[in-house]
Amino acid sequence: MHRRAFIGMLLLLVTGTSLGADKPLRVGMTPAFLHDQHALLAVWRDYLQLRLKRPVEFVPRDRYRETMDLLQQHKLDFAWVCVYPYVAMGNEVKLLAVPVSQGKPIYRSYLIVPAKDTHTRSIEDLKGAVFAYADPLSNTGYLVPRFDIKQAGHDPGTFFRRTFFTWSHRKAIEAVASGLVQGAAVDSYVWESLSKLNPGLAARTRVVKQSEAFGFPPFVANRSVGQADFDAMRAAFLDMSRNPAGQSLLAKLNLDGFIAGSPDLYKSAARMAATIGQP
Amino acid sequence: MFFNLSLRYKLPLWGGLLIVVTALTLSLSFMGQAYDDMKQDVLRSSEDLGLTMSRALFPLVLHDDVWPAFEMVSLPFQDGARANTMHAESLIVLDPNRRIYVSSHPERYPVLSDLAAIGREFAYVDKELGTLQAGETQVLEPPDSSRLFIAVPIIADGVTLGTLLVVHDTSTFWFRFLRLADRALWITLIVLGVLLPINWYWGQSMTQPLSLLARHMETIHRQLPEALEPGIYKYGDELGQLYKAFAEMVAQLKEKALLEKQMIQSERMAAVGRLTAGIAHEINNPLGGMFNAISTLKRHVSLDSVAQMTISHLDRGLQQIRETVAALLVEAKLKNRDLTPQDFDDVRLLVTPEAHKKRIELAWSITTGEPVPLPSTPVRQILINLLLNAIQAASDGGHVSLQAVMDGSNLLLRVENDGKTLTSEQMGTLFEPFSRFSEQGNGLGLWITYQIVQQLKGEIKAGADAGFTHFLVLLPLPGLKGENV
Questions:
Q1: Among positive and negative, which fits the CA dihedral B268, B273, B274, B278?
Q2: Does B307 contact A at CB distance below 8 Å?
Q3: Is the pLDDT of residue B482 over 50?
Q4: Is B79 in CB contact (< 8 Å) with chain A?
Q5: Which helix (H) or strand (E) holds A29?
């Protein structure tokens, strides 16, 4: 027994070394998508492990700030982040892959109100309302509505009577649907995905306005990740649309596939962030 | 009207009424208790939940985490959540300014709205809500409202960040209570369904003997009531005592009636006796004169044949009158020879030929033994009269018996025959003179017997039982009574 176990351990060591590393690749997950689909995450992780032939670990966090901290502390190798954290982290991260939704690597911010509210036409109609933000580092769930308020000539700090963070787009939609708030701004990808998964909930909200298009929340790699791991991971993402297992996953993710993408996709978001200032 | 009803209906109706009232009272008090218990249970579980939740809410309110606070208060109301055991309508978190911080039903109770502005009941809560310390709760029941509020402070370390209101709609209590009451109603109906027939049966069986008794009592002034059959009511309670008393009363009344009848009879007999004796004496005096006249006529006057025949006719007629009067004037010829068993044998010898004529069996049972200190002649006459009567009354080939026994200081004679029994009407006039019951005889036999018995200070009775007619004669022994007849 002991001998066999010893040989097994040796083999494992050798195999690990041959693949470059035996420590798992850690991938941060944020509410940039419906990150509470735990079964989906497990399948996705298995898919990546099979492709990369090494352990992969998903690290879900509710707040973008936490995921950013983990990246900066080198506790994460990769992460699916929102646009603003990507822009804000600058050189600390590299663009790994950009999801493609409905044929384009873009998404928008949806201003939503309860379905019962039929009169709201723009964010200006929500002056003095109770408003839900997703995350202070969210592009679509925070920056976009505040930018719009500022563009309309109001002070985003006092425009609403009360605001709070739900720390997830999905919960922001729930807050609007339940009537807790009179409005929220959410990720179009999350709203569209939810309207497929849970049509009843999405139907209790009404999209008042769609913002301009922004680059889709990207997968980023920590600067510290070696080129081989980076390439292997990027290939694993880009290949997803080319094999049945990946296609099935993409269908569940409500995505078409991944592209390598370019940092230029995020220029408009960076400009807007600069206008509104550091949150 | 009701109070004049028969006890047969009144008693079960009263009993039924009492059962219904008792069952309803018990059910109602039980249901009242159940309602209170249920309310207390709900309040207590609400308080417990409120206290636990308020503790968890404190850090959320402190950090102004509205969304987690909302998730927490709306958790018991999610679809399919069985956790809402407290049956609250909603949960409301108030900030220190009594504005809604968050609520489980934001459409009804929107964030930031003033509590007092929501409605009358909430204005009442706003007014009545006091300052609560940690662990304290306040129950608020606005008047004329179906809502009930339990206030729990959101407090830690003496710092109050707000209040948690558990809102109840008491109509849900009422709904739950109705389900409970429905069950209680059925149980009550089942109990009534069992008890009422038992009560009816019990009342009937209790009052049936009573009404039977009442019916018997009603007739008492018209006629002697019939005695109740024994065993109708066999218990020793008041009703049983009543039955016993009634039976005793009937027996006493009968005895009294019998006594009265006997008294009237003997008085009548005495009156008839006096009358007969008077008439007999009145007849005897002229009769003696007439016999003298006839004798004189026969001796001193020579008569032709027609006159002689006429005189002879008169003589025979007067003889017959004298015999009849002599029979009416019973004179016990008292001789001081005591009655011996030989006298009974003599009597037997005298009546046997008559008995043989009808092939009647004579049963003879004499146990007196020693000579009895009673005059033998009148006793022999009594025996002969009674036995000849009995033989005459008995059917052909029938039975006649004589029993003579000493009963203390009395001689008892019993003469029996198996002939046709006497009717009660015949019994009433049995001992009167000329009361003929048969073709033969002059109707004076029993009269004479009666007179002799009377003169011997005795008693005579006639009776009938089991197809036998009997005559019972009781003659007291004179010596022992201090009388020397």
A1: positive
A2: no
A3: no
A4: no
A5: strand A25-29
d(CA B151, CA B146): 17
* Residues 6 or more apart in contact with residue B330 via CB below 8 angstroms: B447, B448, B451, B452, B455
Asked if B62 has any chain A CB less than 8 Å from its own CB, the reply is: no
Domain A2-101+217-274 has CATH 3.40.190.10: yes
For CATH 3.40.190.10, list the domain ranges present in chain A.
Answer: 2-101+217-274, 109-211
A169: contact with B, CB 8 A cutoff:
no
Show which of residues 218-257 on chain A sit within 8 Å of chain B, judged by CB atoms: none
Q: At what angle do helices B7-62 and B66-74 cross, to 10 degrees?
A: 160
pTM (2 d.p.):
0.62
Contact: A178, B110; criterion CB under 8 Å: no
Nearby residues of B71 by Cβ (< 8 Å), 6 or more positions away: none
Hey, is A83 helix, strand or coil? helix
User: Per the CATH hierarchy, to which homologous superfamily does domain A109-211 belong?
Assistant: Periplasmic binding protein-like II (3.40.190.10)
Q: Which of residues 137-166 of A touch B (CB under 8 A)?
A: 161-162, 164-166
Q: What is the CATH number of the domain that holds B427?
A: 3.30.565.10
User: Which residue of chain B comes nearest to A175, CA vs CA?
Assistant: B67
- List pLDDT tens digits, range A225-259: 999 999 999 999 999 999 999 999 999 899 999 99
Token representation of residue A104: 């384009």
Neighbours of B233 (CB within 10 A): 20
Q: How far is A180 from chain B (nearest CA, A)?
A: 5
Same-domain status, B68 and B119: yes
- Show the beta-strand stretches assigned E in A108-218: 109-114, 130-133, 162-165, 183-187, 205-210, 214-215
Residue A190: pLDDT over 70: yes
Q: A30 at the B interface (CB within 8 A)?
A: no
- Domain span holding position B87: 2-178
B112 in contact with A, Cβ within 8 Å: yes
Predicted ipTM > 0.90: no
Among B305, B328, B351, which residue terminates a domain? B328
Residue that terminates a domain, selected from B261, B295, B328? B328
